[in-house]
Amino acid sequence: MTTDLTDEQLVEQAIEANDPNAFGEIVKRWERKIFALCFGILSREEEAKDAAQETFIAAFRNLSNFRGESKVSSWLHRIAVNQCLTTMRRKKSRSESYLDDEDDSAEKIFVAPSSKMPSRTAEQNERLAIVRQAVNALPMDLRQIIVMKEFEEMTFQEISDALEVPLSTVKSRLYTGLKQLKMKLERTPIEIV
Fold it and tell me: Which domains does the chain have, with CATH numbers?
């Protein structure tokens, strides 16, 4: 049964036994996380869906190139980040161009508990919009690490493996990104409704 195997064993089975169900299990395990990562970077649901789909297509095409030097999850995250960067390059748009987009689907990455009080819901929605705008305004190298660490809850080592950068770089970019995010949020006062 494929659900009992590790990701690495599934890749091995998909390659050696040419078992499409093994790769299907990998997709099933990782599709939500990869979509959330893409959405956190791209901020647009359709683009994130496309990038996530392209991630798994690229992974499937390159299964034989997986050397097992890192975890499958790190490999998939690296492919997803590359897909997002490719998407952004194709659109030739800067991250600031997303600031004016008020698509409600963009709030899915910043999930807040629902409340029964309309004033509290309005306040939470306003805060979510402000945080989303501040994150989207960060440079891509900082934004992707903040999304991976704070929203995807990846470890520093997982981020380092996925982005193929030293652990110290991940930590310094997270520190810098959070510092810039804090400064952006301090400049945007949130009025209490």
Answer: 2-186 (1.10.1740.10)
